[in-house]
């Protein structure tokens, strides 16, 4: 037993000696040094270095609840909602690196939300037409529930260049002090562009920008827009245009001097030339000022192939030439610290020819459509088309618009502030443009025994022509105010109310709310024969909304 014990102890000692020698020969793996996140002070508060790089990054965002009320004057066709709600989120990422050429910056912003209720604060036809929102399809949710997602910003800045998705360089005020953004004014927060900004010294800078034209298009007027290929537009679609088009009648045959045959032009615009934007800006301690201008191409498709509709001696109509719309805008921002710290006044005015979205005349009612009725039970539709097509020549005739806006931000105390804002705008179509569409309506109605509904102009000289809503010159007035409480930094609790009035500049129009069948073919004939019809010259509405918002 003693011998066995001695042998085991000797074996254990030998094994330990060998293992120790082998362990001493092995390399020792050291732990990697810990790299702590470092604060970056070069670009302001909130930036830190991405570990292992010389790039500074800032993460920020926003959460918001908004609820609103707007009167409804009808419960027909999906109307009747008085309230709307939305929950919104925003995520910002700002990355900057110092280089020999200056700061290299990349910025991204994602906006998303869920909305319900009436169009003023809930669902948005404008953003649905842009492709940034999609609607529910349930029986009670159809047109009332909507999810929203938008790549609001995604751009690179380097050595004076900006490339990516950013706010248009044409814009200045851009609804800085408003919840709803209801005043008439250019506010293209998200568009695709490539721009260069030169710093000229003494507070002056100049920018030239190529921008995506799709985000500045208001449709060329068509009496029978056929985006969905609905059956009511089949007569025009069968003229040779595919479903999903925007057909416009043009005369291709005459009997004597009277047009008796028509074909159609597809008025959907193609992406050919970018918009060119230029801006000169001045920044100083008292505020800033900017003068900007833009050129915007208008184009359409060819005349449809085939014999057309009707009879008469055939004529050859020239291809529609491209037209170029343009817009100019001037704005000034004045700091008013002598009233209260943070007080600011904006004044801005814009004029556009064939470029309605550069003046922002459709801001409240809705953009990217030739006509719309945001007020539930609206008495008549405003028309926003950038141009019409002359049915005799096939050429474009542009429209005019102008807007003026003023906005004042006042701090009652560091925690309480208010904004006061208002705007006025007009859009006009030439008398010849409306008369030309009236002649096209007359031929189409004679050959097909029907009309274009609410897009009907009517036969020139008739009572219906004098009362129809299509292509009427209109005005818009907006006035509102807000009160916001910020009990702690980056938290806003506020309420905003505003009043909107729209109207025709001359004469009266059919009141579609009180006379909803007036645009039927039978009623058109009765109106022209002196039958009773309800009319109006203006419409208005008041909206109020509340907001809780936390920025971080």
Uncertain residue segments: 1-5, 7-24, 227-243
Shape: globular
Biggest beta-sheet profile: 16 strands, antiparallel, barrel
Mean pLDDT: 90
Q: Which strand-content bin applies to the residues?
A: 35-45%
* Alpha carbon gyration radius: 31 Å
Approximate helicity band: 10-25%
Number of strands: 28
Strand order of the largest sheet: 2-3-4-6-7-8-9-12-13-16-17-22-23-24-25-28
SS field, number of helical segments: 7
The secondary structure category is mainly beta
**Termini distance?**
78 Å
Please name the defining characteristics of this protein:
552 residues; mainly beta; 16-stranded antiparallel barrel; 7 helices; 28 strands; 43% strand; disordered N terminus
Please provide a brief summary of the model.
This protein is mainly beta and 552 residues long. It is built from seven helices and 28 strands.
What's the SSE blueprint?
Blueprint: H1 2-25, E1 48-49, E2 55-70, E3 83-99, E4 102-117, H2 125-130, E5 133-135, E6 145-158, E7 161-166, E8 191-201, E9 204-211, H3 234-237, E10 247-255, E11 258-266, E12 275-284, E13 287-298, E14 309-310, E15 313-314, E16 323-335, E17 344-353, H4 356-359, E18 371-372, E19 382-383, E20 387-389, E21 396-398, E22 400-411, E23 416-428, H5 431-448, H6 463-467, E24 474-485, E25 491-504, E26 509-510, H7 521-528, E27 535-536, E28 538-551
Antiparallel strand pairs: 1-2, 2-3, 2-28, 3-4, 4-6, 5-6, 6-7, 7-8, 8-9, 9-12, 10-11, 10-15, 11-14, 12-13, 13-16, 16-17, 17-22, 18-19, 20-21, 22-23, 23-24, 24-25, 25-28, 26-27
